[in-house]
Design a protein that fits this description.
Length: 419
Amino acid sequence: MSDEELQPTTDMETLVSLCKRRGFVFQSSEIYGGLQGAWDYGPLGVEMVNNIKRAWWRANVQERDDVVGIDAAILMHPMVWKASGHVDTFSDPMVDCRNCKGRFRADELSSDVCPTCGQKGQFTEPRMFNLMLRTFLGPVQDEAATVYLRPETAQGIFVNFENVQTTTRKKLPFGIAQIGKAFRNEITPRNFIFRVREFEAMEIEYFCRPEDSLRLHQEWMEERRRWYARFGLRMDRLRLRAHRQDELSHYSSATSDFEYLFPIGWGELEGVAHRGDFDLTQHAKHSGKALTYFDEERGEHIVPHVIEPALGVGRCMLAFLADSYAEEIDEKGEKRVVLRLHPAIAPIKVAVLPLSRNEKLSPTARDIYARLRKHWMTQYDDAQSIGRRYRRQDEIGTPLCVTVDFQTVEEDQAVTIRE
């Protein structure tokens, strides 16, 4: 089936409703009307997010001997962002509608008709809008006290290149990984957690010899594809698209995006960029510190090139939720929702369900629950019929349900496990 013939598993409204109803994601500051582009992860959402981060870290750091991790500060010296080019070039074209006063990214408008009010020809001329969020350090709010909430985690890695290489004694090629918050003052945040102003990123900067960079760029794209397949994402809903020259970021000589078929259609899930030596060269120039690697084979210092796989945690969660979503009709003719999440990604691993609230069943069921939750995130549920409780666990992607019945406590101490 072609990309054009494939359909999303569900619509965004249905997915948003499920996330709110079951405690995956809530609107930030909802009791005050919410804040656009900001979302809170609920009890199930935070578990799923943590599972995604653990799966990514395990595959890219723990299981590899050529990647190490750091956790850099969100606030950095403002010259970092001058050197990286973000102060001058990290911008999107913005237009206003003269009629309804709505603001939009000019590059995402398909016509001169306002998507909010429907008026034609009411847009202002595009002007560039810098996406970095500013704040101030100290008691005086002036230009000298200006700092930025980082728009990406990568720069914390680049400015620590020498520190990490010296302390770990890694030889090229090697990578530095980081998971952390980043902030972008998006003009039009939208589509739930797909495009937000505060997000968590998982990034690797993989340093290599210049002559190896094109090969390693290809290898990292294949490595990232294997990661998605490993955790159950359907490959027919994932595609790789190379950026056109006019799409490339200011630091990139080549970038390819993994695109997923979200409820809103095909959209970027992860970028794998060839950043060349841009960042290390720029920071060396602006800081006066040599950020080079001594190549013993050549007997000279070189500036490594960099391959960067970069992924947003929230967008990854959205892809896994959409990909696992299914609706089925049960034996009573009623619709039920099932999330077929990979066990490593599922927020709850085991649910303990006594057949009823009978006082004979509860002690044994509670004992099993206490033992299981030392090892896995576990839920205990004894409310309503056993069928309804199974449905509730299906709806959140729980891979295993343990049922305690009268045979368990009166005869054999065996339980029923539903997978």
